[in-house]
TrEMBL record:
It comes from Sesamum indicum. Residues 1-29 form the signal peptide. This is Pistil-specific extensin-like protein. The keyword Signal applies. Keywords: Signal.
Length: 178
């Protein structure tokens, strides 16, 4: 019976190792990525330069906020842009045992380190927030949403809000963010 016990132990070890490998593979598939680019638009340029001549900003902070079905924040993550103005945020699909739905996540601009180009614009939705709708890449274990580009501008280009404040502005149901 010594041979039979050894065979059973080896079989049990193989099952344990295969389940560990499968769990590691599932953990890799249990994420989604969000990426994009942040640029600086200068309104003092001509139309062609304004539209096509935006420059990347290094070090901009971009964040993602994910809500549960009861509209409570269950995940927050952020990333800084690189030299090309690109960012990529990785989010786990499961947080505290609950499934995170990408459709309940919003991406927005947080801050710019550029002393001249630091006013967030809503051109591309970066100021108010962009909801994740459809992934741009779905391939094997990779699910990636690509958003943007998002833009900052100079204080000279910022249009002031001249609308009269509403009397019932404190009602949360009428808020447009998220």
């Amino acid at each position: 019976m010594g041979v039979a016990d050894t065979v059973l132990k080896i079989a049990a070890s193989v099952l344990v190792l295969s389940s560990i490998c499968m769990a590691a593979g599932d953990a890799k598939a249990a994420v989604f990525k969000v990426g994009g680019r942040v640029l600086c638009q200068d309104c003092s340029q001509g139309w062609n330069e304004w539209v096509n001549g935006a420059n990347p900003i290094k070090g901009c902070k971009v964040s993602i906020t994910c809500l549960d079905d009861r509209n409570r924040v269950i995940n927050y993550a952020s990333d800084l842009t690189d030299d090309a103005g690109d960012f990529e945020i990785t989010c786990n699909k499961y947080v505290n045992g609950k499934e995170l739905k990408p459709q309940n996540c919003f991406l927005r601009l947080v801050s710019s380190p550029d002393p001249i180009c630091n006013i967030a614009t809503n051109f591309g939705g970066g100021k108010s927030g962009v909801k994740l709708l459809r992934p741009a890449i779905v391939y094997r274990d990779v699910v990636k949403y690509i958003l943007g580009p998002f833009y900052y501008t100079t204080p000279m280009c910022d249009e002031p809000d001249t609308s009269a404040p509403d009397e019932d502005d404190s009602d949360d149901a009428k808020q447009t963010n998220y």
